[in-house]
Amino acid sequence: MQAKDVMTRDVVSIGPDATVLQAARLMLQHRISGLPVIDNAGALVGVLSEGDFLRRQETATERRRSRWLEFLMGPGKIAAEYTHSHGSKVSEVMTDTIHTVTEDAALEYIVELMERHRIKRVPVVRAGKVVGIVTRSNLMHAMVSLARATPAAAQDDAAIRDSLLAVIEREKWAPAAMVNVVVRDGVVELWGAVLDDRQRAALKVAAENTAGVKAVKDHLVWVEPTSGMVIEPPANALKH
Q1: What gap in Å lies between CA 171 and CA 178, rounded to an integer?
Q2: Is the pLDDT of residue 74 over 80?
Q3: Average pLDDT of the residues in 38-42
Q4: Which helix (H) or strand (E) holds 68?
């Protein structure tokens, strides 16, 4: 899927000369956590988010540091923080480092961009103009829609086993040489050993996501690599 398939097209934005109070009211009114900042020429000049309101004079949450730390940071950094916490215009508070994508950007790339820069929204631009925005909520909507549109296909036991083993062989975290899979009437039984209990959880998820699986029974033992201690599996089966 691409940005154009999930983005919000009716973008709520604000101008750089608007007040911080106007921006906050607009965000509350539309129940959104961020706003693209667009100037009179239609150019994207920044992004304003809830995080920009965390350190504000109105709530007495400005950063307070020792004089020694302020000396080490230098006057420029302290002055910038003062502008951000006391500024009354959007242009004084917004983040002007902008990360954008085009309409044909893949969702995988957008997610990587969000993770790398720790952002929650990415404006979508065409010829320098904002035509949409992709937020974390848009990605959640896409996930739910795709899950609903993809019914679990029926498979016989042999096909289920082959599908699951193929996943285990493909994933680098999976101890393929130490795990065996038995399938009976759609019930997957995991046998063998793991060296990290997190592998157990991942193997269960891989089994649950295999089409045709009705339930998963965990017989895996956990071998602690440092001590060699063997920890038995939980007694109960994990069911759908």
Answers
A1: 14
A2: no
A3: 93
A4: helix 67-73
Structure tokens at 103: 């309409």
CA dist 127 and 129 (Å) reads 6
Domain boundaries, the chain: 3-147, 157-239
Strand boundaries in the chain, DSSP class E? 34-38, 44-49, 121-126, 129-135, 179-184, 187-194, 215-218, 221-223, 230-231, 238-239
The CATH code belonging to domain 157-239 is 3.30.1340.30
Residue whose entry in the numeric block shows the structure tokens 């071998």: 223
Q: Encoding tokens for residue 80?
A: 């910038």
pLDDT tens for 77-127 read: 777 778 888 888 999 999 988 999 999 999 999 999 999 999 999 999 999
pLDDT tens, position by position, 141-181: 888 877 765 556 668 999 999 999 999 999 999 999 999 99
Domain 3-147 has CATH 3.10.580.10: yes
Sign of the dihedral defined by the CA atoms of residues 69, 75, 77, 79, in that order: positive
